[in-house]
């Protein structure tokens, strides 16, 4: 399938412009060429039509003279009129001699005619023969008169084309009471002057019958399938193997016409030199149009398409794209080199900005972790102070040991991630501190599956939510159950660590849930709660936004926190444990 081509694209506009310019020029040139051909054909046809008509007029005039002679002979000659059967043989012989001498003398006057004859129907044939008539021709006509005259409709037509043997003859016959008077002409002899017309090497002149049968050059007509049955009021083109211009004129004295077959190639040779150049330019333009479009595509559109493709890939976030070197115009070479240089600078700048962002994120992460330490430190001192006032020495010793372990872990909190076992050990130590502080009120339960024993998590991740539960959910009236469940989640395709923390307290308020889900600061009468917000920001920085943390209320009033941490290697590479 062809690619979609927008009408607003440069490719479409250039192609349309080229076609809009070239096609009208080609159409004009072709119209001019064909018009010139038609004009030349018309001129050639008209010129030859005039010659044919002129000669046809001369033939008709000569045949008309012979007609008048025959009619006069029949009407005025006494020997012809007095040929009854009751005459004496001597008188009949003398009459035939006088008629024969008259025909022999008169035929010399009509040089178009090959023979004048009188046929009595008793095998008596009186002839006046021109010297051009051959013995074979005379015998062919004699045989026709003696054998076939009564079986034809020859007498009903003026001058009739008749094929006798292998040749065609033109005959005129008048019937009297006792004889047939007529004349005949060899058609080849009659057409001799037409050979003087220059019709080209393959052009011919010929006579055809009213049924379109050629009397000469039949082989040429049949080989090229030239149609001779059309009217001759105007010229026309005909022919299969070779094209001929056909012009002709119909005789007024018989059932025949004179034609000229002029080869079309002969006509085109008579075109002016300029018209031949126009034809050559038109043909060359048609042939060169695809070549021009291919060159336009190669020199303009293809280099432009390379640039557009590279820019689309860059728009998709692939900044490593470069336009590969290839042979093109100097202007495109400059554009390509400038484009590659610009992309190299952008990539270097992007790397520098990325490194700066990483350093900034590290500093911000350490700052967020340090914000937790003073918060818990103040709470711990408050616990020791309360125990000291109550005089619980044993408890103070144990809680002091727990605090030592707690702060030892906190001193490691500048790490990005820690083993999960260390984080849970710290949580249990923190819970023990809370139990020593408030023996009743909190019942913890921690369940860790074996497949997550070796994973790493951000430090203080679980402890911060446990601390938040103790602070907001634990009361002296009703025990609060705290459940911590850690397992591997394979439901989303990629494996993730699933941490679920829930308590049986009063749950989150709707305003609290809205702020937590919107990652907004949380403030109450005790001040701003920085713990949960710090965890959200730390997860975003450590895992590039691929970690999820959900807050919702369970049934009936449980506060539930679900954390999903990715385990892909590319995320772990971003972690700096140094």
Task: Provide a brief overview of the structure.
By secondary structure, the protein is of the alpha+beta class. It contains 15 helices and 18 strands.
Structural class: alpha+beta
Largest sheet composition: 5 strands, antiparallel
Strand content: 15-25%
Q: What low-confidence regions span 5 or more consecutive residues with pLDDT below 50? A: 570-578
SS summary, helix count: 15
Average pLDDT rating = 79
- Total count of strands: 18
Gap from first CA to last CA: 57 Å
Strand order of the largest sheet: 2-1-5-4-3
Q: What level of helicity do the residues show? A: 40-55%
Backbone CA Rg? 61 Å
Overall form = rod-shaped
Domain HAMP: 298-351
InterPro entries: Bact_2-comp_sensor_kinase (IPR050640), HAMP_dom (IPR003660), HATPase_C_sf (IPR036890), HATPase_dom (IPR003594), Sig_transdc_His_kin_internal (IPR010559)
Main location: membrane
Keywords: Cell membrane, Kinase, Membrane, Phosphoprotein, Transferase, Transmembrane, Transmembrane helix
Set out the fold topology.
Elements: H1 10-76, H2 78-81, H3 89-106, E1 115-119, E2 125-129, H4 135-147, E3 159-164, E4 167-175, E5 180-186, H5 187-190, E6 204-209, H6 218-223, E7 236-238, E8 244-250, E9 256-263, H7 264-268, H8 273-315, H9 330-390, H10 393-411, E10 418-419, H11 420-437, E11 442-448, E12 456-457, H12 461-472, E13 480-489, E14 496-503, H13 510-517, E15 522-524, E16 527-529, H14 530-543, E17 548-553, E18 559-566, H15 569-572
Parallel strand pairs: 11-13
Antiparallel strand pairs: 1-2, 1-5, 3-4, 4-5, 6-9, 7-8, 8-9, 10-12, 13-14, 14-18, 15-16, 17-18
Pfam family, one: HATPase_c
Domain HAMP: 298-351
Subcellular location: Cell membrane
